[in-house]
Amino acid sequence: PLYYYYEVVILSILFFSLSSIITYILRFSETDNKWFFFTIGIFLILISGFLAFAFKKYNGIVKTCLVLNSIALGFFIKAWYIFSGYDNPLWMMLLVSISTVILLLVYYLLTYIPFFNRHPVLLTVLYIILILIIYIVVASTTKTTFVSTFGFYMIVQFTFIIGLCIESRTYSELMKNMLYCSYSIIIVAFIIGLMMLAGDEVDLSLDG
């Protein structure tokens, strides 16, 4: 069974929409230093992690940390946009958010198939693998801001799907599980940081 499915859908919509709005707002920043935005994203994760650990007994802190992680994701995406030369309008960013949530909806519909309902782990593994294959094929043939942003959001959404399958006896327990899943933005940060470092090394070798 999927625990608190509708709550996770709402959380997913809010999480990715806030990230998209943050990324859009940052386009009006006076600086275009990708590492500046990347560093702020890392700083926000550290603050979130500290608060989640130091005040773990307080239920309210979970939502605060989720918001911080969502904002951090927005900063990472902005750093990626500066590095890659992308600049999406707000409607495009929100469209990416909605598309990411659709992954969750499709997964939920698949659980109505009796076989998958009895084997949720198998469904989750196969679903993630299938979506990854489709994404890689599309990304290899299409170079757009939509596809790249969707890929980063997709990583976080996969962990939300995994968290959805974990038994949550209460709403508070669900939120804590989702918070832990949201730290998958660290994976996004690692990928973006790695690509930016590689890009800087190429620039330095060309300058030399």
Give a short synopsis of this structure.
The chain is mainly alpha-helical and 208 residues long. It has helices spanning 5-25, 34-54, 60-84, 90-110, 114-118, 120-141, 145-165, 171-182, 185-207.
Q: How many beta-strand elements?
A: 0
The 3D shape can be described as globular
Strand content: under 5%
CA radius of gyration:
18 Å
- Residue share in helix: over 70%
One letter per element, helices H and strands E, the order comes to: HHHHHHHHH
Biggest sheet record:
none
Helix/strand/pairing class, anyone? mainly alpha
Q: How many separate helices?
A: 9
The unreliable regions are: 203-208
* CA-CA gap between termini: 58 Å
Kindly state the mean pLDDT as a whole number? 88
List keywords for this structure.
208 residues, mainly alpha, globular, disordered C terminus
Q: Would you mind describing this structure in some detail?
A:
Helices cover 82% and strands 0% of the residues. The protein is an all-alpha fold and 208 residues long.
Fold blueprint:
Blueprint: H1 5-25, H2 34-54, H3 60-84, H4 90-110, H5 114-118, H6 120-141, H7 145-165, H8 171-182, H9 185-207
Helix pairs in contact: 1-3, 1-4, 1-7, 2-3, 3-8, 3-9, 4-7, 6-7, 7-8
